[in-house]
TrEMBL record:
<protein>
    <submittedName>
        <fullName>MFHA1 protein</fullName>
    </submittedName>
</protein>
<dbReference type="InterPro" id="IPR027417">
    <property type="entry name" value="P-loop_NTPase"/>
</dbReference>
Amino acid sequence: MRVPNSVVLPVGTHVDCCEEQEVAEKTHDIMARITAMLAERKSNLAHFIDNLEGSEEPKFYMDQWERLKEMESCTLTILNLVAVNCTDHCDIKKLEATILEHVKNEELFPEVVRVLPPVYRQVEAAIVDIARSEEMADHGMMDLQYLFSKLSQPEHRAGLDRELLQDILRYLHRIGLIVWYEEIKQLESTVFLQPTFLIMMFKLLVRYHLVQQLESIS
């Protein structure tokens, strides 16, 4: 909701636990809830903005007003939910095909036809090599400055300035090759070259009934 021009593909899993009619009903219910949630968000933002504009000293709330207006301008496109049975390889392939079909849609992703400079591919290939190297730890965490020094070596890409590297890292973050939380102060100097490690950690830490599981431990 905070990313400009976001495109979201809802995916419903565990289809194998439901009857066909139940899948259709749940799909309709989920899409209706999403629509209602977005309508409520839009209404709440408009209400907050009106309150700030109608305050006695609106100039004191200019920062809040600008943030709310920025959030209000963020469009969000919700695609039709895809229901899959994660134990069925055919369903996984169906989901993959659906994602690729949407990604290639120029109306949804106008930048899909943009040609990247060769240096982007060179840095991407270099990062893949570094992530697969023997010196890379399983967690895939690397200091940003150290990564910069590695990529500046002759065998990778000499003369790569820091600003360009940061732009390339942002692109690689968007496509999911790496994870770089540059907006979080404690993590801005760390690059995760193995996103799958983060996913594994989140699966261990964030789970259904986590509180009940923790409370059951004596």
